[in-house]
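Hello again, I could really use a second opinion on something today. I've been staring at a protein lately and its backbone has me curious. You're getting the sequence in one-letter code plus the fold written as tokens. I'd be grateful if you could look everything over and explain what you see. No rush at all, and the record is pasted right below:
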Amino acid sequence: MIEKDSEDLERKNVLIITAVATYEILPKWGVFLGPGIELESQHNFAVLRFGTGTLYLFKKDWNIIPVLTFDHKVDYTAWEISIAIAKRF
């Protein structure tokens, strides 16, 4: 539940699509930033996503990446902790 214009807005099954650029500041540690959109049946929001993560080699050309992400939206913000799996080509 979030408050929007003095009323509660319930969020269910939210999908966030972003296009981010990543910069590796130290070996195996990077930051990313980019715009996106949060899609939900009642109301959609524009998103600015910022985050950081570190690479751990899992197998040849595969990585496990713990990620900390901050999403800024017009009416609210959110922090996320996640784990990504990546394949290098």
Notes: The radius of gyration is 15 Å. The beta strands are 2-4, 7-9, 15-18, 21-26, 29-39, 45-54, 56-59, 62-72, 77-87. The chain has one domain: 2-87. The mean pLDDT is 88.
